[in-house]
Amino acid sequence: MRALFKKIPPAIKALLLQFAALLLVLFVARATDMQPSFMTFALLCGLCAAVFSYLAGLQRWWLPIQLVFVPALVLMLALSIPPGFYLAAFLLLLAVYWSVFRTQVPLYLSSDKVWHALEDVLQDAQSGFRFIDLGSGLGGVLTHLASVRPDGRYSGVESAPLPFVWSWLRIKLGGYRNCKVHWGSIWDDSLGACDLGQYDVVFAYLSPVPMERLWNKARAEMRAGTVFVSSTFAVPEQSPSQTLQVDDLHRSRLLIWRM
Ligand SMILES: C[S@@+](CC[C@H](N)C(=O)[O-])C[C@H]1O[C@@H](n2cnc3c(N)ncnc32)[C@H](O)[C@@H]1O
């Protein structure tokens, strides 16, 4: 049971714990004949959900979310906002974040200083080199490099619909003939672009969660002498051949491995 619970993505765990808290508060209210106000009921649910989340080992930043989730629902209901607003907000978030509850890799963008640091990484790349951005977001990395190093060929893979469409339009409208973006998952073997054996430089800015799996994929597919770059996120137990510190707001680092 514990092993099964461990495998569940944190967002689903959080939701299950909210349900567990709701059931407990309902049960106690019934058993003690308590008739709390809506808000007291919501606060009790939030408190129980936060305690359950702490006991279940969810990361600390989940606790305030769990605490205020049901009280915030009650407050929002009191505002009588038309339901269409929630549907629209949900669809917008879905289009931007898509399967983030499973992948645990949300959309956040590399700074332009990271783009410039990547130019340094490409310094020795020979004309016609191939570059891929795994999880290419809005396509900023690809289009920047395509304009400063037009002698390369650039690919991106992006799973979230809105960022994909955005980057596709950015590439088409910007006239970047040496750039392509593919809609799909980096783990999808049937997507030809995901075979890392074709690239001279593989770039990823994801999250700590997929790094071990990505490293195994890179080791299995990349050719000797090609370069794997992870922005910010380390690979467990693998020291990079080189690290470039970037002087941006997030203090990003480029971790570089020569395969
Ligand atoms: C941190 S953002 C990086 C965006 C861009 N590479 C940059 O540096 O600005 C990570 C992106 O990876 C995408 N992503 C996450 N998991 C993915 C997967 N399995 N396949 C393809 N894209 C994925 C997310 O939707 C998000 O747009």
Write a short abstract of this structure.
Helix content is 49%, strand content 14%. With 259 residues, it is α/β, with parallel strands linked by helices.
Structural descriptors:
2 domains, alpha/beta, binds S-adenosylmethionine, single chain, 49% helix
Give a verbal description of the structure:
This protein is of the alpha/beta class. The protein folds into 2 domains: 79 residues, no CATH class; 147 residues, Vaccinia Virus protein VP39 (Rossmann fold, 3-Layer(aba) Sandwich), CATH 3.40.50. 49% of the residues lie in helices and 14% in strands. It has 10 helices and 7 strands. A 7-stranded mixed sheet has the order 3-2-1-4-5-7-6, with helices on one face. α3 runs antiparallel to α4 and α7 packs across α8. The longest helix is centred in the first third of the chain and has 23 residues. The chain is elongated, with a radius of gyration of 23 Å. It binds S-adenosylmethionine (SAM). S-adenosylmethionine (SAM) binds next to α8 and β2.
Secondary-structure map with pairings?
Elements: H1 2-7, H2 10-32, H3 38-55, H4 62-78, H5 83-97, H6 100-103, H7 112-121, E1 130-134, H8 140-148, E2 153-158, H9 161-174, E3 179-183, E4 201-204, H10 211-221, E5 227-231, E6 242-245, E7 253-258
Parallel strand pairs: 1-2, 1-4, 2-3, 4-5
Antiparallel strand pairs: 5-7, 6-7
Helix pairs in contact: 2-3, 3-4, 7-8
